[in-house]
Known about the structure:
Blueprint: E1 4-7, E2 10-13, E3 33-37, E4 41-47, E5 53-57, E6 63-68, E7 78-85, E8 89-97, E9 104-111
Parallel strand pairs: 3-9
Antiparallel strand pairs: 1-2, 4-7, 5-8, 6-7, 8-9
Amino acid sequence: MCVFILLGGILEACDTKKDEPTPPDPFKTEVSEVVMTKGSTQTVTITGGAIPIRAKSADEKVAMVSIETPPMYSSVNFSELTIKGLNQGNTTVTVTDSYGSTPLVIIVKVKDQPNP
């Protein structure tokens, strides 16, 4: 809805773009792949996205994930993704946000034993 106001010969129209939410910064992380051993845990720092941020493992028998995000109005601008290797195999972890930003996908490879 636009309202026009005429004051002293100046015509001002409302800006409809002001009502649209500002898109968040895109997701970023320093890794695109995590290689780990069965039973180990790794933490990945993720920046960008709009809170709440969610993470899901495509195969929860291979890796389990949890994500810790900052409070809504915090000055902290990153989330901590924790990945735990459960069984040998490969899966992906997909990170999404409440805005609908392009998802972040991390490849996870869980090995039975560490490389010699």
